[in-house]
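INFO  loader      accepted 1 record
INFO  loader      residues=198
INFO  predictor   begin
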Amino acid sequence: MNVLVCGVGGQGVLLFSDVLARIALMAKLDVKKSEVHGMAQRGGSVTSHIRWAKKVYAPLIEEGHADIIIAFEKMEALRYIHFLSPSGTLIYDPLRSEPLPVLIGAVEKVPDTIIDERIAVRAPKNYPVPAFDVACKLGNPRMQNTVMLGAVSRLLDFPLNLYRQVISATVKPQFVEPNLQAFAAGLELIPPPNAPQS
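INFO  predictor   done
INFO  writer      dumping tokens
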């Protein structure tokens, strides 16, 4: 399984990928992980490649070979969509975090309609997941990554108790229960695999 996680600094991309890699390890799989976070502290792009199987020989995913891309921000989804395999799935938060050149007016903002069209063409299997909004409603926007983890769990074969175990072992004790609630909320954002299609 090849999973690429992307977002901007401060969204918890690296913690998310650590948790997901630990879950795969607990499932007795060989796991390789790599991350890039050059300007993460300033809202720059952050990515993590996670690969697992019985045996994995390298941590990086080739372009066009990601089974799943998990994007915490809409523009980042578009930025890395070329990594997605033709049969891959994109899960993205429709949240927009505009880069500095847009914020200062040096560059024009790309309309949502253009991004949506490009996502639909390149990733026919896609799930917009409002993880940030759900985390805000739960009282802590920093739990966006845990909400997203709940949504992603619908697409992976790991038992749910593994997610709960790793979350409980990773976050500080006072944040365990809120994060388990965030994970449960994320589960509701993508229908179960056998649910009837509407």
